[in-house]
What does this fold into?
Amino acid sequence: MRWISRKMNQRERVLLGAVPIIALVIAYLVFAALRHAANPADRIAPLPGAMASAIWALAAQPDPLTGSLLFWADTLASMQRLLLGMSIATGCALVVGLALGALPPVRAALGPLVVGVAVIPPIALLPILFIALGLGETAKVALIVIGVAPVMIRDLAGQVAGLPTEQIVKAETLGASSWQMILRIALPQAMPRLVQAARLALGPAFVFLITAEAIAADIGLGYRIFLVRRYLSMDVIIPYVAWIALLAILMDMALVATGRRLFPWADNQAGGTPA
It folds into this structure.
């Protein structure tokens, strides 16, 4: 059987997916062991024990200055910013994407603006946001929204604009108004695509979050990473990066489960949602 025709069951996918991760962990452990054998004081590649001790101090021991558990406080602050930004971006994508895809006059009026904003590197707008909105939470959330919303809008608008013409003609024949066609035809078929667009936006959203926190924040995962880097605290940086990756994976899995639960018909038509 050719590899291109091979069907993988759940157990095989899990096993094969675990192989490169285990290989990467083993490679790091060997690398770290060799560096510590040559220099026991090495801080570039900390051993698992050192990383566990550093994270335990941040996660289980109150900070002397604030009295909070810094690891969990950083996580909560970052997740609040990320979820708020993603929620606003998703809402904007749904409303504007539906209008752009379903209504040609709206597409002609707003399409160039959405394209123009989408091609601007969001990081270049960060100084403008800090000047206009200050260094508080608003600017950080706004960066996430500006960074991911235009791409999500274009994706959703393309999905709506590409709906079969036969569906529109049949609805018009039955006397449906534009509003009814948007709600009864475009919206149900756009929702599964919106979930996929949110999944694809998670990675860039984390990038914008960490960037904003690194520049102007006093708490958060990105803030902590860039704070300790000056001390070469790789025993904190590496676990924080791994924690960010785990959070992103869990959020992606939650979106997949939500899409499959709410729109099983779309999952079946697509032949399964890619992991």
Q: What stands out?
A: The CA atoms of residues 36 and 71 lie 27 Å apart.
